[in-house]
Amino acid sequence: MDKFFSDAMEIRDLAKKHNKMFEESIPLIASENVMSPLAMEMLLTDFGHRYAEGLPHQRYYQGNFFVDQLEDKVIELGKKLYNAPQFDPRPVSGTNANMGVIFGLTKPMERICAPDLSGGGHISAAKFGALGFRGLDIVNYPYDEETMTIDVDGARKTILETRPNLCLFGQSVFLFPAPLKELRDTFQEVGCKVWYDGAHVAGLIAGKKFQDPLREGADVITGSTHKTLPGPQHGMVIGNTDEKTWKKVQKGVFPGVLSNHHLNTMAALGITLAEMLDYGEAYAQKIIDNARTLAEELYALGMDVLAEKRGFTSSHTLVADVRKFGGGKEVAEKLERCNIILNKNLIPVDKNRNSQDPSGIRIGTQEITRIGFEKNDVKALAEIMMKILKNNISEEKAKEEVMNLKSEFKQVKFCYGTTNPYEYIELFK
Ligand SMILES: *Cc1c(COP(=O)(O)O)cnc(C)c1O
Q1: Is the CB of residue 256 less than 8 Å from the CB of residue 36?
Q2: How far, in Å, from the CA of 14 to the mean position of ligand 1?
Q3: pTM here?
Q4: What's the 242 CA to ligand 1 centre distance in angstroms?
Q5: DSSP assignment, residue 416?
Q6: N6-(pyridoxal phosphate)lysine modification sites (predicted)?
């Protein structure tokens, strides 16, 4: 009996250790966040045991009486938050949302313009990612390394010459707004649809602090709901387009790329949307302020933070060239040993370089802001980081300092109520 109980306990033990590790670390991965207590509560509900295929009130299964009301409410909140006529909360991740749009709005062999990987593009937009697997003919926009954005004149030329069916914008290294306004006439001239991948910046857009893609010419926005939008790991599509196009997108989502849509995470998303309506503007502003402060401090202390001429960043993200400290891999691993968690990242000088050994690192301030970091705390963090990289402190001592700094920040902010999101909650006794 219970031959594998010890294996189960081993898994639980890993989870406990993992929680503790993050409780004691400073989290700087630009694509992660922590949830509010109400949102976390939703993950444990019976919604997570059920199926609800299709759209509200047109289901295929019984038992969806409250699910329909839940989904209506999530859609209503999503439309309100993004000031959008269309909202679909069913994709189960950002990539899944992207696939829904790809299935709905493209056919194999069609042409699509998209950001380049070395310019921060996401793997789903790569030849070996979802766009490539769909058999699309991908043309990349030229990228301006100095300003870390798409080269507008070059992009205009590319679009006019290649006449794509669809133009994709949005990156995983997303420092400055995409040039939608600037290219609007060009989109109209070639008659293409415009798709904005807002996975990273969905929370900043919700807080009205980055750009307003739907007013600047985007037909649809896809997003992850767990990066700057501090919700569950899930996805969404937001639309401001004609009914026919929207129907195609919704069919792309279901039955195109999913069946059930993970109802407990959808409920958590609904809570997050409500909290962003109440707290989103203050949260987004603080994220960006903290990113600028961190960039300025690191730069002043000798780190080659990119895009200095544009003030480093207008988002939650900053990137740095860390070749003089041994490169992205070495720096990320060294900082990890001192409980600072971030990732190595390709930067523009890395053209064609192996992404396991890039020259840069990427840093995001959305999670530290969520748990209460203010300007002075960010400055303290920059100082510790630079002491570590310049070998002015032992790794042991640095880890102690990092844990000490983190110990004051264990309560999630910008939401209803508060909790320690790193705390391990036991159900099994
Ligand atoms: C993170 C990211 C995604 C994918 O999101 P998942 O939720 O991890 O599937 C898509 N596009 C961009 C630009 C991203 O950065």
Answers
A1: no
A2: 26
A3: 0.97
A4: 25
A5: S
A6: 227
Phi, psi torsion values for 208, nearest 5 degrees: 60, 40
- Cα of 203 vs centre of ligand 1, distance in Å, is 13
Q: Tell which CATH architecture fits domain 40-275.
A: 3-Layer(aba) Sandwich (3.40)
What kind and span of H or E run contains 196?
strand 193-197
Residue by residue, pLDDT tens for the chain (429 residues) are: 799 999 999 999 999 999 999 999 999 999 999 999 999 999 999 999 999 999 999 999 999 999 999 999 999 999 999 999 999 999 999 999 999 999 999 999 999 999 988 788 888 888 888 899 999 999 999 999 888 899 999 999 999 999 999 999 999 999 999 999 999 999 999 999 999 999 999 999 999 999 999 999 999 999 999 999 999 999 999 999 999 999 999 999 999 999 999 999 999 999 999 999 999 999 999 999 999 999 999 999 999 999 999 999 999 999 999 999 999 999 999 999 999 999 999 998 887 777 788 999 999 999 999 999 999 999 999 999 999 999 999 999 999 999 999 999 999 999 999 999 999 999 999
What are the two backbone dihedrals, phi and then psi, of residue 137, each rounded to the nearest 5 degrees? -90, 105
394-to-25, 338, 387, 389 alpha-carbon distances in Å: 17, 9, 9, 10
Query: Which among 29, 175, 197, 205 is the best mutation to test ligand 1's pocket, defined by most ligand atoms within 8 Å of the CB?
Result: 197
Contacts of residue 362, defined as CB under 8 A and 6 or more positions apart, other chains included, come to 30, 173, 317, 318, 319, 342, 343, 344, 345
